[in-house]
Structures are given as structure tokens and as C-alpha cells.
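Quick start: load a record and inspect it. Here is ABC transporter ATP-binding protein:
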Amino acid sequence: MPARPPLIRLSGVSKQFGSVRALEDISLEIPAGEIHGIVGPSGAGKSTLIRCLTGLEPPTSGEVQIAGTRIDGLRGAALRRARRSIGMVFQDVHLLSSRTAAGNVSHPLEVAGAGRAEREGRVAELLELVGLADRADSYPAQLSGGQQQRVGIARALATRPPVLLCDEPTSALDAETTRQILDLLRRLRDRLGITVVVITHEPSVVREACDSVTLLDRGRVAQSGGLLDVVTSGDTPLARALVPLPPSDPDRAGRLVAVSLGGSAQVRSARDVLAVLDAAGIPAEIAAATLETIDGHRVGRLQLEVADSDAAERVTDLLSGQGLAAEVAA
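Running the structure step on this input writes:
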């Protein structure tokens, strides 16, 4: 299948505030129709990246293109037109308390000058899509947090933007409501063909909803790629965050080897790994293990305990030859 063209492209984007370098040479392409997660700790540059993506902050250097339009040099009316290609969803939904759910969804259509019949039809369509057709006349105070977020998503999609940018959309929600919102985002992507960018500090959100992911660290791209590629590429900080291992016994006497399962390797399970090592005459035990299903694929991470450093090196060589990412744990 041919690669989908990028709908969002950042090329060498840097942003400096005085002596502080908030972003450093960010280059990133997000294909049309993909859900892409951007993660990183506080201070990593996520908020600055959002502002550059939406034109609220011009980058100090580099280019930002959304849906074929370069927005980093736009100002005034031209920037406002370009920003219509991006729907925004926030952690704090910021619904208008004096308007009903239908009135909130209608608001951007009114600003865009849509006629009454068009507004009413689009509002009804969107509330149906987000599962709130029966709450059109409810005010925000009458809605749960998850329902308010659904209204916010419907409002963001009112003018049919090709891109939906979600800034920490679930961090104020409980686990079940978070799952429902993430399921909704995937269904909307599939139904409408939109491209979704999710900014989050929660690896679980990326694991459950995203097709690809970028890790920001101190304003730089530390790792980026398809979700399956990232979690099976080795013992990286992002892989550890997305598929965390349970703690192993700190008093173990042997050496530990970290192994990533999944991807294209023929060895796909912990049992397969132990069988390969047993056939080579290398005793090993599983010190810790995590298995997950990501995008319909079983992936996992293991920590194997072997006798000493020589055995650990033999294990990494042997499993690397089997197509697995394996390295001696620090």
C-alpha cells in the first residue's frame, strides 16, 4: 500500500524565547487520516509546539504546513482562514455556559457565516455522531465531564476541518470515560477521514488511540515512529513508557537482558524466547514481563535473568539474530 501523503509537515522548526530554546529543529510529518500522539514530560515543548501548529506563535525558524498551506508566515485574515483547517479540543472544554449543547456546536458556524438551515443540519449531524442527539437542549452544567468533552469535539468539527488537534483531551476524565472518548476519536477518524493529533503526558492514551507517536524531550524529537515500530525497536524510554515492565527483584544475582516482542520477528512469545535459549544451552529465567495488544497486534517486553555478563552477551547476539531487539539492561 502506498504511503499516505503528509497532511501536517514541520521542517526544522525552532522557537526561542529570549535565551530559552523551547523547540530545537523539530521535523515531523503526519500522514492524512492518522492519529498521532505527541508525548513528553512537563517542559518538553508540547505547549509551544501546539502554538506553532495553530499559528498562535510563529517559529523563530523553520516551516509549518497544514493541509498544504504554510502558516508560519501568515498574519491577520490569511492566518484566520488557514486556522479554519484545524479543529481544537482542550482539557478544559470552555463551553459557553449560556448556550445549550446545540448552541455551542453552532457557534463556529455562526462565526463562519453559515445560514440557519445549514447550521441546524450540521449541528444535528454532529451531535448524532458524538452520541448526544438526545442532549441537544442541555446546558453545560447539566452535562457530565465526558458529555461536555463530546460537545467540545463536535464543536471543533463543525466547520469540517481536516485536522483535529486535541490538547490533553482526557486528563480530567476517569478511566472509563477516557476510554469512551478515545474510542470516539478513532470512530470519527474512520468515519470522517480526519487527521488527529493528540497532545498528552499519558502514555496509556497513546497506546490505546494512536497509530504513531513522537516523544519530545527538552524541545527536541527524542523518538518518533509508528506505534508498533516504537514498542518493538528496543529498550528505549518511549517503549518503556508505552509498555512498562513490572518491577523485577532488585536482589537478583544474575544479569538482566531486555527483550522486545512483536513486529516482524518469528519469535513472538516468552515461551518461544525461552525455547530458543534452551536449544542453545543458555539457562534463563523471566524476571519481569508485560504483554499488550496494540492495533490488533500482540507486543511485549521481557527482562530475562541469565548467569553473568558473558551469558547476557550471548543472549543478545542470539536473539538479535532472530530479529528481536535485545540488549543487556543497565
